[in-house]
Amino acid sequence: MTGIHGERAPLRDRLLDAAFQLVETKGWQRLRVAHVAAAAGVSRQSAYNEFGSKDALGEALVVREFQRHLDGLKECLMDHRDDATAAVEDAVLYTFRSAEASPLLASILTSARVGWGAEELVEMFRTRSEPLLPYAVRVVADLVGRYRPDLDRPSVELCVDMVIRVTIGYLVTPDGSHEDSAHRIALMADRVLAPV
């Protein structure tokens, strides 16, 4: 990166890293921008200059974590670009494991109240101008379309939407092992994408 954004990125990343750690250990409700600034080793004014408010910091944190997850999903899909069923299974399994490792990501994906005070943080995204789910569907469908132009775009979008929603359902209400659940979801996707 160059220019202003390049100079600001390290500060922004430090602040977001600090916010992530504090949210996961102490929750969102008690978090203050001053806490994040202190944990990042910068002045409170620098943190406010970067984000402007606690809500803006929270939105940036959620968007970054969600984007990181989407980047991981893209890697799963690229690893299996010639096998849609294997790509879906790997992406779903990646999601299960990532959500298990990160309460923040689990809360973002499920809007669940996981007991560490992120309800207010997650609630901000129900009324967002671009909700995260349609954004994810579009990003993943674009990627699939780039490498699998043989697949019908409306069917791909329907399949991606279904996979995301069913995966979230399994996160909220687990049924069997992650591997078995990912395999079942991949089989569902295969049926949706199968030629009529």
From TrEMBL:
Residue ranges for the DNA-binding region feature of this UniProt entry: 32-51
Pfam family, one: TetR_C_35
Keywords attached to this entry: DNA-binding
Start and end residues of each HTH tetR-type domain: 9-69
Protein name (record): TetR family transcriptional regulator
InterPro entries per record: AlkX_C, Homeodomain-like_sf, HTH-type_TetR-like_transc_reg, HTH_TetR
SUPFAM superfamilies assigned to the protein according to its UniProt record, in alphabetical order: Homeodomain-like
Gene3D superfamilies xref list: Tetracycline Repressor, domain 2 (1.10.357.10)
Sequence intervals crossing the membrane: none
